[in-house]
Amino acid sequence: MADRNPLEDHHWYSVFSKGYKTKVITYSIQRAFQESLGTEEDYTDPKWPPYTAPPIIRTFSFPKFFRMYDLPFKRAAPLLFQELRSDKWNIDDKHYHNQFKQDLTPVGGLGFSGSLFFFTEDHSYIVKSVSRRFEYTFLYTQCIEAYGHYMLSNPSSLLCRMTDVLFCFDRHLGGVLGVSPSHYVVMENLLKEMDAEKGWVKWDLKPQKFFEPTRDLIPDQIKTQQAKSGLADAMEEDRIILTKKQKDELWALLKEDTEFLEEIETIDYSLLLGRFPISQNKDLKPSKFKHENWITGVTSANGKYIYRACIVDFLWNVNQLQAKITRTAGKLLPEQTVTTEPGRYRREFLSMVEEYIVVSEETGTSDSRLDS
């Protein structure tokens, strides 16, 4: 963590600077990791339970209200996430906390709206803001507890590994103006070594059979690059080349995970898939690990590539008010990923993944769709 407090080293007009905003927000995030987690007996405040999500109780203090970016974040369900990190995912606690003693790097620059993303020092973790009320309401009222129990019982799950959640329920000026998020999720970065020059490719896959207004109504010639980047990917001619055993193992995980997501009534999630050629990334071969899995990497059946995958963005719960409004308004249009029902979304999601998989029992064989 930087020695100099950015709050003590600025001019009044710095508040309008993106650089100042970045420094103060990252300083606030880092500060949350300085406090020792302690034991269950140390948590006497009912507003900050150790194993469950905090109750959403908004507080107001006149002096605190004028905070713009400097927020007193706390870690939600801190001992639950510590148990997941240490006991289920074998994350080294010292390395993890050291990541938050170094500068955080904003991804794609910081504007004054939208979600904020930061990489930790070695890109092992992503810190993402959760700014939409219906998403963080679902996160605290249902998701954290359900997710925690599920992941404790299913440590090999393909759901992205949330390692911490930071919250601040104090009303503050930055929140009113929409320039300073009050909630962040820390996630393990599945593709931390990603390097396009070494042949890495990634896809953010959602079912393509649903109607997508930006994709389906606006001609490609007039779409902005920002609009295109917001669309879910399609694999086009590429395919995931697996052995039958690999496919069966993947399918079992996907069926179980999506059944859980259907039970908590969430939709619009996607499969984050990364692929890199072994020939250009020999130091990342899964053989260096105890066994292959979709987090450390699975070798393609043709022996050319390594795949990594996880399910991300599962905070769109159909019972939240904004989701209900979106679904009602969306009835004027064909069915979309944000207006469908959880069961149907799950079926289309699994169908999409199955379509992208090609089974090949012979290792070393080639598939032209992957050789492009």
Automatic annotation (TrEMBL):
Keywords: ATP-binding, Kinase, Nucleotide-binding, Transferase
Any one biological process term the GO annotation gives: phosphatidylinositol phosphate biosynthetic process
GO molecular function, one term: ATP binding
Record InterPro entries: PInositol-4-P-4/5-kinase_C_sf, PInositol-4-P-4/5-kinase_core, PInositol-4-P-5-kinase_N, PInositol-4/5-P-5/4-kinase
Listed SMART domains: PIPKc
Highest taxon of source: Eukaryota
Annotated PIPK domain residues: 8-357
UniProt-listed PROSITE patterns: PIPK
GO cellular component: plasma membrane
Protein name as catalogued: PIPK domain-containing protein
Protein's organism: Arthrobotrys conoides
